[in-house]
Amino acid sequence: MRFKNLFLVVLGVLLIFGTLLIAGDEKGEKADKPWFDMENCAMCKNLVAEPGLLENSDWENHKIDNGAVIVTTVDEEYLPAMKKASKQMQEVAEKLMAGEKHYLCGMCSAYGELYMSGAKVQSVETNHGFVEIFTSDDPATVEKIHAFADKNNEEMAKMMEMEHEHKEAH
Fold this sequence. Notes:
alpha+beta; four-stranded antiparallel β-sheet
């Protein structure tokens, strides 16, 4: 599985629907949760429920002077699967906004916090996925956006390395 795809797919789904995440987890804890948790995160598990979706999508995460640009591309035959996962994730987001508590991985929690901190988020659906632009005029918020982009790049690199080691072992 190409884990590097996860980050942008999740962001694309969340942004396309303008989801306002109220990032709560069942335990009320933020420390020590994994950055990505495909099996337990109320959002992410919808992505892995769609066979082949992650393996057939890709992402790029780039910092810019006042934020970050994130590009998601999905192989054409998997666009319907992305739309299905998006719908399911929107349903989870609506439950969160209604006050229900659901476990969210570190990335989904951080995304919600970033969105709530005042980052301006623009999303464009393309023929092959999504482009999201996170920006701010506030230097402190730009710093948060950059830190978020850096953390995602770091965690993706770790997952790619683990996936590579797993493939070599088998």
